[in-house]
Amino acid sequence: xxxxxSLQEIMKVIKKRLFLIISVFAVITGIxxxxxxxxxxEIYQAQTQILVNxxxxxxxxxxxxxxxxxxxxxxxxxxxxxxxxxxNKVIEELKLNLTSAALSEQITVSNEExxxxxxxxxxxxxxxxxxxxxxxxxxxxxxxxPTLMSVxxxxxxxxxxxxxxxxxxxxxxxxxxxxxxxxxxxLGIGLVFLIExxxxxxxxxxxIEAISKIPIxxxxxxxxxxxxxxxxxxxxxxxxx
Length: 241
Known about the structure:
With 241 residues, the protein is an alpha+beta fold.
């Protein structure tokens, strides 16, 4: 029974300050939507893949050893791809107004465990430029790796292509707005209950009963409305006389 009364009190508080909850919800959601649609730049992503080849050999044992060596070198390749040795040449050939450190922030290199395929992801506000950068990084890496490590076992598996209708990967506007809406709703409800806790004024007989711990026997109604109506009737009557 107490749980039922508590739930009723909660619903009563929410209903009483529903406008405040809706206002907080609308303001936070609106601000998030405005920032996502008008201020945050859209970021596009392009991907290219390079393959660390196993050299052809007639010796099975030697073939296995070379394959293992290729796999062990992949982590090294991942570092080299984002190194100034590669990125400075990319910047030079594409005539970019960037530092190698800034360009490195746009590039992500990864590979699956025990896989000789290396994925190069490039993000940029321009979809065409992202694809161009990804392909150039792969090309420069393939050209430079024989000099840097005296190996020649890199092939480009797939190039980055610009689709007819590229979609940005950042920001995720729908997700951001949904999260902000949930936060706005929770903040609104939290603010309402905070106000209720801070507000110690007596509003009705229930508050008096809760404070005094004495049951209310009766309530005297306000006669203010009746007084006003009686006064208006008396005024009209006097005028008619």
